[in-house]
Amino acid sequence: MIVRVDLLNAIITHVFHPYTSLLRPTRSRVHGGKSGGELMSGGIVIHNPRPGTLENLKAQPAGFAPSVYLEGRERAGDGGEGLFIWESGDQRTNVAADPTAGVYVPPNSDPRGASGCWIRAESSHGEFRPQWFASIDRETRDATTAIQAALTVAKRVAGTVRIPAGTYKVTAPLSIDAGAIIGDGWGTETNAPGTVLIFYNCTDSMSGAINTRITTARSNFIRIENLYVKSSSWDGTTGAIGHGVDIEAPVIMRNVLVQGFKEYAVFLHNDANGVGPYGSLLENVITQYAGKHGIVNGTGANAITFLNCQAKWCGAPAYLTAPTVAGSYDGFFVARDGDGNPGTAYFTYAPENIHILGGDCSYNSRFGWNFDQTENSTVFPGYAEGNLEGAGKQARVGNVVSCAINFTQLKGSEEAIQNDLSFSLYYAGTRIRYGGKTIGPADWYDFIANPVALDNDGKAWENAPKRKLFISRDNAFTSSVYLDQQAAPDGATINSATEAAATICGAGTFHIGLGAGSRHAKFGNGYFRLPDIYLQAIATGWNASAVQRAIGTASPTSDTWSQGDIQYNRTPAVGKPYAWACTTGGTPGSWVPVYRLPGVSADRGDTDVTLVVGTDAPTQLFNTALTRNRVITLSPTGAVNGDKFRIVRKGLGAFTMDVGGLKTIPASTAAFVDVEFNGGSWILTGYGTL
After folding, report:
1. Residue 134: per-residue pLDDT
2. pLDDT in tens, 493-510
3. Which of 234, 241, 338, 651 is most buried, by the most CB atoms less than 10 A from its CB?
4. Which burial class, exposed, middle or buried, applies to 340 when counting CB atoms under 10 A from its CB (0-12, 13-18, 19+)?
5. Cis peptide leading into 51, omega within 30 of 0?
């Protein structure tokens, strides 16, 4: 027989023995048991044991030949064929990392490879094939062991696992933390060629069929290319009920179709320590028929670039079934919390520096594009139509900061775009463009996203009054009212600001829009500055972990509050509180002053004085000489536990000064007296002469 083997421009030209072949290179290297070697112009003998299988090679004596060619792993032409070179020396580490002997083959006489092993020559190129590690006959045999074994061996050199065209059954999740997994295209089972991986028995809903992890991938990009990744079903025992591709490490993902997974098709996020897929690139990634969102750029997935990616028919009600009614899932979803961090299983961090160009997110159960939470991002999403959000909107912008978002092809025409957007609160630094109009902080109108109210040329944005605050039950602001006694766009009016939360919005969630200038609105762990109004939830309007803040001239006397809520003082002054804190929740609950502002009174003169907390300065000065015995009365009015006064007498005179019956400063004596309220009465806490 004639066997052709590529080895430094050499070919086998003659077989002169049933077990050997003569290799005549133009220029070759003698391995002598080591890679490399001396250049030679003679021949290399390559042995071909019969049968030319892996098991027969293992049965041969250690190092019986420097070079061996196998015709297949288990049978000729099964994909395991190749040239093996004997490598002497301790190979135990390599052999242990390759238990199926796809690359490192020890003899049976030394199964751990202490004295050496045969090494597949083709592996020196950094490319590995699953067929080396187990024989695979398309979908008739489980390819899981072969593919995962190839990934495990390849990662030691950040190599590439190349899977030829065909349909492969995979019965467990695949994990990759270095190197690459590359197919021969994303053709389906019926329009081959293509590499199709069909997943079974992936029953962890929080994991993916393909998982990238951050162990060794911290400084290397994992490549996932030219694959069709598919769930076999949503059966809880035999199907794939988690994510399609779970990305926790930096990746370059190109030309991949992900279809039919019960959770998200593609999920990018950081790990529990805050390390994630920083700098990843996804190009021509197509997701279809996900049970929930198509592509999720979740918590801590920063500096991600998406080029021409698609997400269609997501929010599927059943396996490979397109949604037909409005639901809760989007084609493309960006968020830190909620679906961006399911079960708060990962470190929470707002995704930022997201870059999107083109793509198509159509026919999903809610929005095509949903930018719920992101910062410092540049977004130029492509097409969207046929999404099933109740009002017919194709996209949504939520709590975004310093972003440029340009919608140009929603529903196919500029005329339809105004009715296809649904905005919630957005912050300064953001530009949102659609239908030829730009919204952003240059104008920052408080007319927040009521597309129905816009006239055809968008002038309602330009004519909306500035510096107005209004509140609404829904994030489309279709039933908005101003809180400054102005008429709202829908004609409703309000007589006093304090009516708004209870009277206009009622119980439950409400939304706040804010105009230009120095007033801001920021929620959660942030702050907001607003006019004199109690802004708080009657029921579920606020996140339970967020501190509610308001502003007024006294502690609240009505409405429902929770422990830890704060009301700031609109008119702070010496002796008055900076704010009031709710110590016991209720209507209105119990409130205490927070830090009375310090100050010293003017000379109180030669008079009797009654001191009232919140009216008189904390330090009281008496510089005038007394002409009779004087009494300082300490009123309990407005006093709370911890309130203090210091009375300082500098004016002399042969008369005494009685401080609240607690201490009498003798005649002709300069001294100070410190008193403090204990919640029931004033007590003496200090005295000294000056």
Report:
1. 87
2. 333 333 333 333 333 333
3. 241
4. buried
5. yes
Radius of gyration of the chain, Cα coordinates, nearest whole angstrom: 38
- Work out the burial of residue 68: count CB atoms within 10 Å of its CB; fewer than 13 is exposed, 13-18 middle, 19 or more buried: buried
3-state secondary structure of 226: strand
Biggest CA–CA distance in the chain, Å, is: 135
- Distance (Å, rounded) from C-alpha 18 to C-alpha 67? 15
Amino acid (one-letter) located at 338: G
Strands (E), 429-495: 431-434, 437-439, 470-472, 481-482
336 φ, ψ (degrees, to nearest 5): -90, -40
DSSP-based three-state secondary structure for 500: helix
pLDDT in tens, 148-200: 999 999 988 889 999 988 889 999 999 998 899 999 987 765 665 789 999 99
Q: Nearest 5°: CA angle at 528, between 525 and 531?
A: 155
Q: How far apart are CA 444 and CA 518, in angstroms?
A: 12
Buried b (16+ CB within 10 A) or exposed e, 200-216: bbbbeeebbbbbbbbee
Closest by CA to 319, choosing from 201, 231, 198, 228, is: 231
Is 424 in contact with 398 (CB distance < 8 Å)?
A: yes
Smallest Cα–Cα separation from 528: which of 538, 507, 542, 539? 542
**Contact between residue 311 and residue 327 where contact means Cβ atoms under 8 Å apart:** no
Residue 405 CB burial class (10 angstroms; 0-12, 13-18, ≥19): buried
Sequence-distant contacts of 156-160: CB under 8 A, at least 24 apart: 156/97, 157/126, 158/126, 158/220, 159/123, 159/126, 159/127, 159/128, 160/126, 160/127, 160/128, 160/223
Model confidence pTM above 0.85: no
Cα three-residue angle 312-313-314, rounded to 5 degrees: 90
Q: Strand pairing of 251-259 and 281-288? A: parallel
For 444-453, what is each residue's pLDDT tens digit? 333 333 322 3
Around Cβ 635, how many Cβ atoms within 10 Å? Answer: 14
- Res 665 pLDDT > 80: yes
**What's the token pair of residue 357?**
């160009």
Give the H/E segment covering residue 144.
Answer: helix 144-154
User: If residue 675 lies in a helix (H) or strand (E), which one and from where to where?
Assistant: strand 671-677
Residue type, 529: R
Q: How far apart are CA 561 and CA 549, in angstroms?
A: 10
With bands split at pLDDT 50, 70 and 90, how would you rate the model's confidence at 397?
Answer: confident
What the block records as the tokens of 278 is 């920083």
Q: Among residues 437, 392, 431, which one has the least CA distance to residue 411?
A: 392
Best CA proximity match to 629, nearest among 668, 575, 676: 668
Residue from 212, 213, 204, 166 nearest 185 by CA: 166
Burial class (CB in 10 A: 0-12, 13-18, 19+), 447: buried
d(CA 172, CA 145): 9
- Cα–Cα distances (Å) from 279 to 41, 302, 355, in that order, read 49, 7, 10
Are 196 and 168 in contact, with CB atoms under 8 Å apart? yes
In angstroms, the CA 624 to CA 607 distance is 9
Is 169:142 a contact under the CB 8 Å cutoff?
A: yes
Residues 6+ apart with CB under 8 A from 402: 375, 376, 427, 428, 429, 430
